[in-house]
Every structure is written in C-alpha cells, then in structure tokens.
Amino acid sequence: MEQDRQVTWAFHRLGGMDQVTLETSEELCRLRELDPKLWAALSCPASGLEFDARTLALLDGDGDGRIRIPEVLEAVEWACRRLAHPADMASRPEALPLSALADTEEGRHLAATAAAVLKNLGKEDQQAVTPDDVAGAAAAANALLLNGDGIFPPHDDLGEKAAFVRTALSVAGGEKDAGGRTGLNAAGVDAFLAALKAEQDWRAAVNAAPHPLGEDTAAAWTLMTELKDKLDDYFLRCRLAAFAPQSSASLNAEELLAVPDEHGLLAPEALAALPLSHIGPDAPLRLDFGLNPAWRSKAAAFFRLIAPLLPDAAVMTEDDWNAVQAAFSPYGAALAARPVPASAASLPAGDPAAALAALTDEEIQALLTGPEAAELKDMMARDLAVPAASGDLAELERLTLYYRHLHRLLMNFVSFHDFYSLRRPAAFQAGTLFIDGRSCRLCLPVADVGKHAGMAALSQLCLLYCECRRRASGTSPAQVRNIVAAMTAGSDVFLREGRNGVYVDDEGQDWDATLVKLVHNPISIKQAVWSPYLRMSQMIAEQIHKFAGDKESKLMASAAQKIGSAAAKPQAPFDISKSVGLFAAVGIALGALGTAVGSIAGMLMALHWWQFPLLFLAAFACISGPSAFLAWLKLRKRTLGPLLEASGWAVNGQLPVNLLLGRALTSEAALPGNATRTGHDPLRETGRTGKAVLAVLIAALLGLGYLGWTGELAPLLKKAVTVEQPAPAAAPPAAQPAEAPAAAPAEAAPAAK
Questions:
Q1: pLDDT above 90 for 503
Q2: Model confidence, pTM
Q3: Exposure of 540 by Cβ count < 10 A (0-12 exposed, 13-18 middle, 19+ buried)?
C-alpha cells in the first residue's frame, strides 16, 4: 500500500532550473519512480572527478569506467535497505552510527560486524564507525591467517598442511585472499581431491590395460610415438617407389643433400627431414643398412624393445609395423583417456597435468587419505564464521562510504544542486585558476585540448585552456596536466596565449599554468559597454602610428634627396609672394574649423542645463548600446552542458550559467572591506606641464562656450580668417566727346511741336 501512494517530490528553483533536493527518506527509497528525463545527468565518468575514488569504484559495478542511472539506483536502493532513516545521508555525516542501521536481517548483521570492528580496534565505547575504522580492521585482519575470508595461502602457520595447499594450488588453482595473496578455499580443496581421484583411477586403468612388452611397454610406447610419423612416411614412400620406379630419386629427397650448414656440411635439420631409410620399391626397414643417421639411435632402441613382436629382430616390413601398432592399441587407448583436471578457481594453475604427473602413486594415495583436507575445510568453515569476516567488512565499508558520499553524488547527478547553490564545489569542479587578477572556480580536467575545445565552445563561455606543470620534489616525479577554466567576470583584454598563472588543485597543491588556447566569448556586460571605445582607441592609435610612420619615411626620403641635390643647385631666396596662396588656404581651413566649432558650441549653449546629461547619455547609448545588447543576448545563452559533454558527461538540460552565477564563479581582485588606503603616492607624477595643458583646455572650452552663448563666436572667427584683398587699380579715363547741347526739358517738347 505504501508503494501505491505517489511521492511528493520537492524541487528548488536554482539557476533557472528545477533542482530536486532528495531530502526525505521517501524520495530516496523511491528514486526509481522519478522520471529520468528530470535527472540532470544520464551518465558521467567514473574517474577525473573531485569525489571519493573508492566510492566511485563501488558505484561502477560493471567496471566500464562510467556511472549510469541503473548503477546509481542500485546503490541507493542497496543503502536504503540497510538504513533505518536514509534521509540521514543528506547531512553527509563523517561516521555511520550503529543506531542508523535498520532492524532487518541485513541491518542486524552489519551492526554485529560494526560492533566487532570497534571491539577489535579497542573502541567499544564508540557508537559510530567510519570508513577509516573499517579499513584499519581489514588491514589488521588481512595480516592474520584466520581473517574471515575462508581462503588459506601456504602460510607457515599451517604446518604440514602448507604442502597440501601448495600442491593443491598447482593443480586446482586458487583465489586472492583479503590480503591479496593466492590461497585455497573449500571449493579448491574439493576440486583438488577430485583431480587426485581421477588421476588415481586413470593410472589404475592404464595398469590394467594389456602391456604387450611388459615393463618395457611404456618405454617402447614413448619411442613409438616419436617414430610413428617417420615410419609411416617411410613405408608410404616405398609403396610409391614400387608404383612409380622413375620417382625413386625424388622420393629419397636427394636435393636436400645440397643444403649445407655454416661449416659447409649437411645441416642437421636437413638431415632429419630426409626419409628414415633409403627408399626402394616395397623395401622393408632394415636395422643394419640404410638408416638415416639422425634417427639411427632411436630406431635401434625401438627395434631392440619390440624385438619380441617381430619375426626378424633386424628387419621390419610394413605388415610388421601394422601388427606392432595393433598390439599397442589398447594401451594407447588407455593412455588417451587421461582426465583433464577441472578448476572453478579465478586464478587457474599453470600446468595441472604436469603437476599431477609429477606425483607418485604413493603421494596421491597419501593426499587422498591423509587428514590435511578435512582439517583445512574445518578451519575454513571456522574462518568464515568470524563475526567480522572479509565479506562482512566489504559490506560495512560500502555502507559507510555510501552513508558519507552517496547523497553528494546524487546532488551532482540527479540534480546539480551543489553547483547552483554555491555552498560547496560540484564534483566536476577541479581546483581554482589564478590569472590576470582573477580566480576561476569552474575548472575541469582535459585530456585532449583540441577535441575538448571543439565541443566546449558551444557553451558560449570564455574558456582558458592551460597546461599545468608541477616540478619534481623528493620522491614525487614531475607532473603535467591540462585543465580548462571558465572566465565569467571581468574582460579578456590582457588575456593572450602564453600568459602564465597559477593553478591550485583541491589538495592545495599549486601548479605552474600556461595559457595555451583561448576560446573568445563575451564575459560581462561591463566589458561589452567599454569595448567600442577600446576598439576605437586601438584603431585611432594604429592609424596614428601608420600615418606617423608614412610621414617619417617620406620626410627621410625627401631630406636625403634634398641633401643630395643641395651641392648641385644653389638655394633660391625665399619669395613670400609665392606662399600667399598657401597661407590663404590655411586660413580658410582654420576659419572653417572655427566655424564648425562655433556652430557646435552654439548648439550646445542653446541647450538648457538639464539637457546636457541627456545628450551625453544618448551619445553613450548609441555607441555602447548595440555592443551591450548583443553581449547580453550571448550571456543569456551561456550553458554548462557542452562543457560537461566535452568532458565525458551525458546531461539532460543545458544547465544555464546566468550573470549572477558567473560573477560567483570568477572573483576579481578587490580590497577587503576593512582595508584602509592613503592618498599619497610617492611615485605619482607631479610635473606642471600636464596641469598647464589641462588649464588651457578648460579655459578654451569655457571661452568658446561663452562666445557661443552670446552669439559672438561666429563673427569673430569670420573676421579672424577674412583676407584683405588689394583694391583694383583705377582704369585710365576714356576720351570725353564734345559736349552736346543740353537736352531740352521733356516737358517743353509739346510746346515746340
């Protein structure tokens, strides 16, 4: 009925994500019911994390180097079955209280083991056990013969039984005991006895089989197996020689006689490859004629042993050879039935058959009927009954480690609560990088910089890839490692490849860090606001340097040309009349500039005082606004997902990194809150030139402002740049015609008419 009720899951909103907290026993016990799509991670590496390595090894049940959701669920459920209140793991205690164990068979068994561990360590009054306590108890137990693992190496304390153990290990194999030594367990004893019995039965069957030559049968069989292929080959060649007499030369393989050794003689290998004797049509094998020197001694010994089976002790036909094989057939079948020792041990023996063959019949009988086997099995049973047996110690160690570390793993796997809460470093955060007056807390180990950067660049984070080196000291060799650090505050103006910093790992060790690769992305709004002015100043500086360089080059070339031609041509006297046009052009340019300045100053002075701040804000917004807006859009897209994916994680969401989190992950240099500072700087420049220039500029601006305010600036500038033109020369008077009579008044005309 309890399982039918729905779980009330508690989520906290952190960093723009819903993070499950898993603070109740119900949530932990029924974690399997939480939709995997709501988990922050689907899998992660089992190494390279700032996490307890032993706990990671226990979680990686299949040993593939990765931790997946099924393995996490199995670990949580295993721990919940043995704890009375699984929610206690959320506090991440250092020790496992005995009262925290569940009142179940599994819990009571572990409670008894924990009590035995504390008693063996002399800590009977202590009511909690730590992983260090369990490790200490295991180390002490491993040094003893009776250490609870039921595995006995050939220890001197075993006395005569040590020889039994050594022989059994050579035949049946063994297991690793708690101390890492190869030993024999009860299953190994049974396998060894079974192998001895099978060997004994086989030897009896061989002895019962027909022995055509009595005591010489075994020796004759050994020679027969060595010579069988050569004998079969000889009689086959003889049949072929009878079938095709013209092939006699090739059947004798006379061409091999031309193969010499380093001394110019026939090589032994070539001689051994020749037929057993001279080949002739259906020729019998004769002991006194034609035998190959490489096989003569073995053939002679074989003939001597099988002489009772041959009509003629010095001659063997093919029919005689077939009869000899038939006589040995039952004996050979009995030998071929030799059993292969079976072993279920994880550490098999080297050559069980050879080890058994080295035992005499009397030794086998003594091992089978002696008391060693029964005594060893009795000791093994008593060893396994030790309250703190090795298996129980392993279970207790697992529970103490889970009790301390498992909830932290959940807060870095099911959710990223540790990362977003900023209370403690996440499991994937590895140390701190100090560089350019800042400290970067989001650092991850990197195996391949190029491959990692290709994926991690999608995170929209400014990434610093550093090669970290630590010099050899004492017994510690020199070390090299690569890391990536996320720069999330400040600017990257002074960050360049090759710049040095210091990396401090989680153990407090410092490494020399060199920036080897920089992935550029916006870092902060502040950087984006001032970047247009920085780019503008850089552009102006570059243009000034370029202009000055060009002018310097042209000036030097012109000077060299003039110096070279000065001796050949006398200097002409200066004629001011030729420069009047130049002066006029300069005056006009200055007048235009003054007019422009006056117009701007007039427009500014036409504004009310409260409009000046608005004007400056509008100009500032027009210049910095687009850059800041684009940076804001990119900063909103910063995510941790691609960075973790590049490091081997499989995450569900994008895991945003907002501005507040970014400022927390990268700290800039700042004076302490309780610091004091004096204003006097003995190295501050105190020259008067800068002050004078500044005073002149302020006076000029005030004057321009006043003139622009009164409307008098433009006339003054026009008057200052007006060029007096010379009056034109008077034209000579034209010849005057004779005076005409005065015209009659107009009004008199009608009267005259």
A1: yes
A2: 0.59
A3: exposed
